[in-house]
Amino acid sequence: MTSKTDAAVKVPLADLQREYAQIEGPVLAKIREILVSGRFVLGAEVEAFECEWSGYLGVKHAVGVANGTDALVLTLKALGIGPGDEVITAANTFVATAEAIAQVGARPVLADVTPDTYTTDVAQVEHLITARTRAIIPVHLYGQPADMAPLLELVERHGLTVIEDAAQAHGATYRGHKVGSLGQAAGFSFYPAKNLGAYGDAGIVATNDDQIAQSVRRLRNHGGVERHQHDMVGQNSRLDELQAGILRVKLPYLDAWNERRWQHARTYDRLLSATPGIAVPQTGPERTHVYHQYVIRVDRSRRDALRTHLQRWWIETGIHYPRPVHLTAAFAHLGSGPRGFPVAEALAASIVSLPMYPQLTPEQLTHVARQIAAFVEDRAGETRGEQG
Q1: For residue 62, which of 255, 159, 256, 196 has the smallest C-alpha distance?
Q2: pLDDT tens-digit profile of 115-166?
């Protein structure tokens, strides 16, 4: 199964250097333009990117902030959510989702996820709603939208708010609508490795709600929109001009880059679907998946050995995420609840993130799939030998 050329093929989990090489000219020109302007915080580049991003999503407002975590924190604050309130979110997410809830003094309430899409299980959510519940934060995980229709029906019935965690799903759609345009508000991260990434931390709040947008604009800038005007207690969470400028350069490439990710995912699917013991990711109905991560599942007893094997062949992998939120030290106090989180825990023990970025080559994709197949074949041979 292994080719002599495999030893020469290196496949990082992400490759921002190759992305930069593709856009070096316009990036350097934009940086020079900003440096010459002498304006570095909340200037014309931020305003332009906010306008372009809101137009891309099809929403009224986009408010640039320092990072994706702050996008959620400031949205929660704008909604008046705080001590005594509960906010429901997914058990298998990057810890920042729960962290944002805790930072405003509210209690994160975790819901398990579905075993096919790894997104929030709406049936679980309904059982978790109490008199203290104020909002639900569904996570569009790995680039796949959560199942929003039943969730939106649920929150309307209970008078709650939906805040989308869209940090991993730039450009993904649900029933033809971009994620970030489906709830009352959404938080995006532009961490460098995202489908649309800055060259540092950056984030944005998207909303159709005038009041939320107005409040976030104040909260991000020490409580006011004008210098030395402080209408409320805010914080420093401003998107800077350099990051906004970089994002403006990259935005026109986003759809093409997402299409490349989708094509790479189809190649992985084709090469891996027939490999015993490997479960490729599934996409739910009426959704487009933009594959921020391509996450397979393997038997938990072989997961770490597979990663070691791939590392020997210069293939970098990841685990997103190695433990559910309730099993982190920071949120152990939340416990497992009466239902537990069997799906989230099973996922954490069995998932592997394979290299996924637009600049992957056919040679790299084939190398990854070939080495996974070689590992499975070697283990099958060992098993047959033990049985013999």
Answers
A1: 196
A2: 999 999 999 999 999 999 999 999 999 999 999 999 999 999 999 999 999 9
Q: Give the CB-side neighbour count of residue 311, counting CA atoms within 13 A.
A: 9
Residue 56 preceded by cis peptide, ω within 30: no
Residues 6+ apart with CB under 8 A from 139: 89, 90, 93, 97, 119, 120, 146, 165, 168
Kindly compute the dihedral angle of the four CA atoms of residues 259, 260, 264, 265, in this order, to the nearest 10 degrees: -30
Dihedral in degrees, nearest 10, Cα atoms 64, 70, 75, 78 = -90
How far apart are alpha carbons 174 and 168 in whole angstroms? 14
Query: 185-189 and 86-90 as β-strands: parallel, antiparallel, unpaired?
Result: unpaired
Determine the CATH number of domain 19-111+118-252: 3.40.640.10
How many angstroms separate the CA atoms of 388 and 375, rounded?
Answer: 20
313 φ/ψ sector (left φ>0, alpha ψ -120 to 50, else beta) = alpha
Stated pTM of the model: 0.95
CATH of domain 4-13+254-387: 3.90.1150.10
Domain spans, the chain: 4-13+254-387, 19-111+118-252
- How does pLDDT run across 40-91, given as a tens digit for each residue? 999 999 999 999 999 999 999 999 999 999 999 999 999 999 999 999 999 9
Question: Which tokens is 48 given?
Answer: 């332009």
